[in-house]
Amino acid sequence: MTAVISTPIGSRLDSALGRFTMYRLVLWVLAVLAVYSMLLNVLGWLTFGLPEMLAHLALCLGLTYGSNRLLAALFHVHPHSESSLITGLLLYFLFWPTQFSAGLQLTDLAGVALACVLASASKYALAWRGRHIFNPAAAGVFITGLTGLNIATWWAATPAMLWLLLPGVLLVLYRVRKLLMAAVFTVVAVSIVVAELLRAGSAIGEALWQPLAQRPVLFFVGFMLIEPLTLPPRRWQQLALAAVVGLLFAIPYNLGFVANSPELALLVGNALAFAAGQRGRVHLHFQGSRPLTPTTTEFRFQPERPVRYSPGQYMELHLPHEKSDGKGLRRVFSLTSPPESRVLTIGVGTAEPLSSAKRTLLALEPGDELTGTAVGGDFVLPRKSGAPVLLIAAGIGITPYLAQLAAGSATDRDVILLYLARNAAELAYAQELEGSGARVVARLADGSPPPAFMQDAGRARIDSAILKELVPDIAGRDVFVSGSPGSVRSLRAAARGAGARRIHSDSFTGY
């Protein structure tokens, strides 16, 4: 569930990136950067030596992958292989490849090996209720640095790497909708570094170039700061965290046994995020499912302990399954049950063709266990209970509104729900919507009439004029739009054209 950019380029980009989970995209981008680094070495722009780089890559990937699987077996959990490979690639870019020209450098190799094993171990040892607290790569690097065996150099911050690093980072940040968070961190960190360089006599051009091309600002923010399991759940918390980590990243200090470093700044940020978020994984027991419409299904789970969340937020589920379709093992779903409920429910589109993850959900038997790895999102109603809202749902986009309406918002405030569906049979949660007290307006694509309690919006495509006619006071309402990226993009534009000033969006990319 993400906000979208309303441009033709954004539409094509969303469609392309929607085929990948965040983990898979990061893995591919890092893999391409690793290949690019070796090409640079062949061209003479890096001087590590190709055999050394290949050996370094094999060591990082092999040890993180192998140690993660071993530890997962010891702790009786399903290993997340993509995560371990991402960690291995990160460590490849954080340590210098060990040089063999002067003989076998056992101490350097031991340091890298130790960091790989510690990174994997941190997911289990430095964890609370099954959820790791610290970025694994940063934890492995920091602890290894304390031993004196090896220290991180963050060599990805090399001018020659910048030409592919920058578009790769922007692609990842766009996919996970963390461009604003990245901008806050970058502005804070770069401003401090630039001020120090100007004070030291550097020219303005050099002062701006150095932090972006020769310090790991971009690599840090694109692949490590935004790790989802170590972020707080709300956007304002993430922005505040970015500013704090930016300060710790850029301000020089030395406390004797530790000095400022990117990895230490990130670990401090991870600790702050842990204090603000849902602490620990949530173990869920599957209770059953029910069809909502011919193409959507509701799944019910009993959590082992209470889950903290606000109506409209999502939960990320870990869905181990064989014969994966390449989209990874984790998926994000809006929680449709109110926070006070003892049962968690999600509504999922289950029309063919089904992804391997959805097939896994449909194959669950009562009593089966799953893990919720994270809770978050900012698609929540205004705190001011009297603020009127317009909720626009396209298809499965109805799901985040169920918890909001069930929490009593429709009786506490002026709520209009505009629901777009193919036909009357595809109107999910009709009974719940009728009892919510909200004014419900439906637009059915086939022209059939909606249930009696819903106002018929007709067959005309929802554009600015139609929306203004249906909701004359739209300028005074907070507008929420939820659905597929294409639907959200079109409906956002319609709302803006109708005079809406405060628009919030939640889109469901391919999963």
Structure, described:
It is built from 18 helices and 14 strands. The protein has 511 residues and is of the alpha/beta class. The strands form three sheets. The chain has a six-stranded antiparallel sheet with strand order 6-5-8-3-4-7, with helices on one face. Helix 16 links the parallel strand 10 and strand 11.
Topology of this structure?
Elements lengths: L7 H10 L4 H22 L6 H25 L6 H14 L11 H20 L1 E2 L2 E2 L3 H12 L14 H15 L2 H21 L4 H10 L3 H7 L11 H16 L11 H15 L5 E12 L2 E8 L10 E5 L11 E5 L9 E6 L6 H7 L6 E8 L12 E6 L4 H8 L2 H4 L2 E7 L8 H5 L4 E6 L10 E2 L7 H7 L7 E6 L1 H13 L4 E6 L4
Parallel strand pairs: 9-10, 9-13, 10-11, 11-12, 13-14
Antiparallel strand pairs: 1-2, 3-4, 3-8, 4-7, 5-6, 5-8
Helix pairs in contact: 2-3, 2-4, 2-7, 3-4, 3-5, 4-5, 5-6, 6-12, 7-10, 8-9, 8-10, 8-11, 11-12, 17-18
